[in-house]
Write a structure and sequence with these properties.
Elements lengths: L6 E3 L4 H11 L3 E4 L5 H6 L7 E4 L9 E4 L2 E5 L4 H5 L2 H6 L1 H7 L5 H6 L2 H7 L6 H7 L3 E6 L2 E6 L4 E3 L2 E2 L6 E8 L6 E7 L9 E10 L2 E10 L6 E2 L1 H7 L6 H13 L11 H22 L3
């Protein structure tokens, strides 16, 4: 189908984009990579009166380190993330996650900010952001504010970002040297959304877990931070008993719903299995 008519705007700065959002009101939509919005428009499930294309705002692209923090522009593409030497060296968990998103054609246009702001619990970046303790910079008419990833996702397609705000940057603390990592994703075919997935960032000391961060994809209305599983693992060796209990606690935190990728029980079971695999892979990469 053909989308309904709309006005098109292509601002050159964040300030101009924020002004447009304010003047055009809630009938305007931001356009990033377009992989979610444009299909909805073609089906006329979404009929915005105006599109604000962020693609020409140079300040929204780029990957850089500032002190002990990695800063990523919201319009940075998945392809750019996947091929960043800085990220490969400092935040390999993010690179591993991105490598499992869709296919090369999508990764050339899809953006990290668009993925996050869409608020889809089946997307990969939300859980990766939780596991990495990321923060998001939001720009609006009253200036900028920084919001932690944990708590940012409040429901399906729903976040703390206001209708007059633009996500401009993702900030990630550089993981401690020697950290292990893994993003284990179970899917029906290459490039598909996850049936379930687990992101793990792990620090070991003396053969025991010193610190661990766990987040789950597509087993709830939001990405899930498996806090009880994390707490259980600290101070323990990653033996079969610890892995089994962590998987059980993570599964208990799920609130999956049935869909074309599986029943709620199946998705929950796969979340437990993906966590086991992610923890084992992270352990193999961790250095004491």
């Amino acid at each position: 189908m053909i989308p309904a008519g709309f006005d098109y705007h292509a601002p050159r700065s964040v300030a101009d984009a924020v002004k447009l959002l304010g003047s055009l009101g809630p009938d305007a939509k931001l356009l990033a990579g377009g992989h979610s919005l444009l299909p909805m428009m073609k089906l006329r499930f979404a009929q915005p009166g105006a599109l604000i294309d962020l693609g020409r705002i140079a300040d929204l692209r780029g990957i850089a380190q500032a002190g002990n923090e990695i800063r990523i522009g919201a319009m940075t593409t998945e392809h750019e993330l996947l091929n960043s030497k800085l990220l490969a060296d400092k935040v390999p968990l993010l690179v591993e996650g991105v490598s499992q998103i869709a296919d090369p054609q999508v990764r050339y246009k899809g953006t990290i900010g668009g993925d996050i702001c869409h608020g889809d619990p089946a997307n990969d970046h939300p859980a990766l952001a939780l596991a990495l303790d990321a923060s998001f910079v939001l720009a609006g008419p009253k200036g900028e504010r920084v919001v932690k990833a944990e708590g940012f996702f409040v429901g399906v397609y729903s976040t703390l970002s206001q209708t007059d705000e633009i996500l401009t940057q993702i900030r990630i603390p550089v993981p401690a040297a020697g950290s292990g990592w893994s993003y284990a994703k179970f899917k029906r075919k290459t490039g598909d959304f996850a049936t379930a997935a687990a992101a793990v960032l792990l620090q070991m000391k003396g053969g025991k877990v010193a610190k661990v961060s766990i987040a789950l994809t597509n087993v709830g209305n939001t990405p899930i931070k498996a806090n009880k599983a994390e707490q259980h693992l600290v101070g323990k060796a990653l033996d079969e008993a610890a892995l089994g209990e962590a998987a059980r606690l993570a599964m208990a935190s799920c609130s999956a719903t049935s869909c074309q990728r599986g029943t709620a029980d199946y998705k929950t079971a796969m979340a437990g299995e993906m966590l086991r695999r992610a923890l084992q892979a992270a352990l193999s990469r961790a250095k004491p």
